């Protein structure tokens, strides 16, 4: 079942307000029934699924995923990113002025990005991960006899 326009409006207002009664009012439901309609709408699987989907979309826009972080670190390591910095310059007679400049990552920033990428891909590891099983055989007079 598809959502009605009012149900969709209710869900969008509910996401914004976190109040079912107020969301129902703003979506155009009757003043008399907005409390019960708001609660009913939250119990409907279609409305709940729509709200969950929209919240997931909103959250994914706010939080960087692993791929985005790796792309950013790669752009810093390659010197492709730019940062805005403020530079204060003296103009003589004790006066100075500030201006904004765009700056590529310096060597230290690029090295840190490379280090973080290296850690992610286990490039710089002193330890070896060995998996498997190795039989243990005990020889000598203290060995258990069968």
Automatic annotation (TrEMBL):
Keywords: Plasmid, Viral genome packaging, Viral release from host cell. It holds the Pfam family Terminase_2. One of its GO terms (biological process) is chromosome organization. InterPro entries: SPP1-like_terminase (IPR052404), Terminase_Gp1_N_sf (IPR038713), Terminase_ssu (IPR005335). PANTHER family: TERMINASE SMALL SUBUNIT, TERMINASE SMALL SUBUNIT-RELATED. This is Terminase small subunit. It comes from Ilyobacter polytropus (strain ATCC 51220 / DSM 2926 / LMG 16218 / CuHBu1). The lineage of its organism: Bacteria, Fusobacteriati, Fusobacteriota, Fusobacteriia, Fusobacteriales.
């Amino acid at each position: 079942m598809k959502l009605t326009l009012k149900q969709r409006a209710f869900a969008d207002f509910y996401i914004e307000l976190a109040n079912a009664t107020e969301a129902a009012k703003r979506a155009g439901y009757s003043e008399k029934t907005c409390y019960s309609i708001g609660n009913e709408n939250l119990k409907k699987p279609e409305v709940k699924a729509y709200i969950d989907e929209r919240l997931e979309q909103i959250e994914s826009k706010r939080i960087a995923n692993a791929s985005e972080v790796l792309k950013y670190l790669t752009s810093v390591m390659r010197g492709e990113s730019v940062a805005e910095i403020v530079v204060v310059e003296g103009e003589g007679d004790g006066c100075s002025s500030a201006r904004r400049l765009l700056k590529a990552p310096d060597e230290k920033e690029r090295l840190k990005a490379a280090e973080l990428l290296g850690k992610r891909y286990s490039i710089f590891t002193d330890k070896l991960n060995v998996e498997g099983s190795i039989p243990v055989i005990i020889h000598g007079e203290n060995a258990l006899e069968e």
